[in-house]
Amino acid sequence: MNSYGTAQLARVALGYPAIDNHAHPLLKAKHRSLLEFEGLISEASGPALTHDSVHTLACFRATQQLSQALALKGEPTWEAVKQAREAMDYDKLCKTFMDATNIQCILIDDGLGGVSQYAEGYKWHDRFTKSPTKRIVRIEILAEVQIIDEQLENNDLAPYQAYSTFVERLHTSLQASANDPEVVGFKSIACYRTGLDIAVMQDANKIEQSLTMVMLRYEATRKLRLADKLLNDYIVNVALHVSSECGKPVQFHTGLGDNDITLNVSSPSHMQDLIKAYPQAKIVLLHSSYPYTRDAGYLTAVYPNVFLDFGEIFPFLSAEGQASVVRQMLEMTPTNKILWSTDGHWWPESYYLGTKQARETLWKVLAEYVTKQEMTESQAVGIVKGALFDNANRIYNLGLSPNWTEP
């Protein structure tokens, strides 16, 4: 047996169909060059993105892999990759990278800023998968765009009516999403807005005051962004209540993000009281909770309603860093509670690298355990199938069968 195990483990890890449990839409062809391509390998912005990110191990590795996929000749360079992709027909570019992933189903969060103006609708992505794409509803955007924005623009509510109307519309909108067969789950970005130290106890008077402040700021600035902790915490609690009743999971952005995140409140350890308060709600911790992976693993081990996604570290971390995170995840996390995503967004290459690197990392890490006789190969194969497909299929109640023929 070599250091990467036998052919069976390699075959399954590199080829088993996958459910991408958290991703975002691709850009429309006419907007393909709208955003800095360096966003493929970093969450940074400004000079940290355009200048610094290209000097990371993550970028060096991505350059090698994309150069090979594009069959470029000569010394692989980031600029050569950018020029080659720009020269390709956009449909061919998307097909080249998406077909190579063997993603059978994508669960798309279409609430990412800019999606409605610049990206394709979630159903457009069905052309790349054998099972229909489904939606993840971002709860803060639902509250902003469909509820508060509507109230503010109509400007026909007395101040004392605003709170009761907001509460009613929030419940109604979340319940409508819960009843929609196209929606398989919810997502919160509380981590970005106000942190993961989300309060369970709610004070209606203070929430009403918070809503009033949001409305007053909008009147002064004509800009709306929910970043008031009392109000944001309330929205999360309502979503978890609905989730408890409908059985659709709530994903939480945790850990890894851009400079809008306050890092010390991005650990899921802050969510312990919230997890206890909603034992019937399925809570999915996104993005490996990096750099707090062990915190997340601990929570999955002691609470039956917590699950861990090991996405976004591909391709943002070096290969060694990715392997380290996967090992940390496996230290304590029950293997029936891990699931995978690309966090694919804007560019088809994000889906490609997110899949290729995850498959290779999972294969190599598990093969080490098999070689050390810490698990059998059949157990390792079972972990791969669960992580790539079976666990997400069960957790989101998708009812799919993997498009796979056993050799």
Automatic annotation (TrEMBL):
<dbReference type="GO" id="GO:0016787">
    <property type="term" value="F:hydrolase activity"/>
</dbReference>
<feature type="domain" description="Amidohydrolase-related">
    <location>
        <begin position="246"/>
        <end position="361"/>
    </location>
</feature>
<dbReference type="InterPro" id="IPR006680">
    <property type="entry name" value="Amidohydro-rel"/>
</dbReference>
<dbReference type="InterPro" id="IPR032466">
    <property type="entry name" value="Metal_Hydrolase"/>
</dbReference>
<protein>
    <recommendedName>
        <fullName>Amidohydrolase-related domain-containing protein</fullName>
    </recommendedName>
</protein>
<dbReference type="Pfam" id="PF04909">
    <property type="entry name" value="Amidohydro_2"/>
</dbReference>
